[in-house]
Amino acid sequence: MFQEDGSSSVTSSPLQMFPMMSLSPGFMSPYPWLKDLKPEERGLYLIHLLVTCANHVSSGSLENANIALDQISHLASPDGDTMQRIASYFSEALADRILRTWPGVYKAFRSTRISIVSEEIFVKKMFFELLPFVKVAFVISNQAIVEAMEGERMVHVIDLNVTEPAQWCALIRDLSARPEGPPHLRITGIHQQKEVLEQMAHILTEEAEKLDIPFQFNPIVSKLENLDVEKLRVKTGEALAISSMMQLHSLLASDSELKKSPPTPMNAIGIHLQRVALMNQGTLGELLEKDMVNGYSPSADSASSSPLSSIGSSNIDTFLNAIWGLSPKVMVVTEQDSDHNGKSLMERLSESLYFYAALFDCLESALPRASLERLRMEKMLGEEIKNVIACEGLERKERHEKLEKWNQRFELAGFASVPLSYYAMLQAKRLLQSYSCDGYKIKEENGSVVICWQDRPLLSVSAWRFKR
Amino acid sequence: MRHVYSDPDAEVIALSPKSLMATNRFICEICNKGFQRDQNLQLHRRGHNLPWKLKQRTNKEVKKKVYICPEKTCVHHDPSRALGDLTGIKKHYSRKHGEKKWKCEKCSKKYAVQSDWKAHSKICGTREYKCDCGTLFSRKDSFITHRAFCDALAEESARFTPVNPPVNLNLRNELLMTNNLHNAANSQFPNMFRPELGGLESGNQMSIDNLQKPRLPLWLDNTNPHLNLNPIQNPSSSNPNFLASSSTTLPELVQMAAASQNQWLINRSSGALKQEEEDKGNMCEAISSLYYSNTSSQHPQETNHPSAPMSATALLQKAAQMGSTRSNNSAVFGTGFGLMSSNFSSIGNFNPLNQPRNEVCQMNLGKPENLNGLMASTSASALTSNHGGDVPRLFESSNSLMGDSSPLIMIPNNKGKQAQSGSVIEGESSLTRDFLGVGGNELAKFASMGSSMDLTHYSRNM
Question: Where is this region: Leucine repeat II (LRII) (chain A) (predicted)?
Answer without folding.
Answer: 199-231
